[in-house]
Give the backbone structure.
Amino acid sequence: MSNFKSSFDNSMLNTERAEDVTILYSKQGTVKARLTTKTFHHIQNTLVPYIEMKNGLKMEFFDDSLKSSSTLTAKYGKYFEQNGNVLVRDSVVIFNNKKEQLNTEELVWNEKIQKFYTEKFVKITTPTQIIYGDGLESNQNFSEYKIINIKGIIGVNKSSIPL
């Protein structure tokens, strides 16, 4: 009789992987957002299943006419299926149709309520000013936003801001 003991690593069970993925988010039959990512890991063997995007992502948001209203890019993302939150980190940038740009290191988009929010430092660049602060709430097309704790506003000549 042998004393052979085997072990099995089940960490990879219930995990899906894909490359060059596009996900469409819709509400009441209308496409509201498109997410694209190079790599996609769907982890299902945890209490809270999630999709992890370690190699960056891009989200494009659409208005009711299906025209692009804003674009988000980040180097890392995690989508929590149960609550509809997409957490993005590392070099997060959002552009909108008003030539405004948000820069932050961490942001959450909630698919269900179609809003962005963060408690982290934010920088918003517009054609006429740069606004610094901590915390932000915004609609998903980044046309209406509120900085929770404004740290400073700098007026600038719009020709001097590279957008």
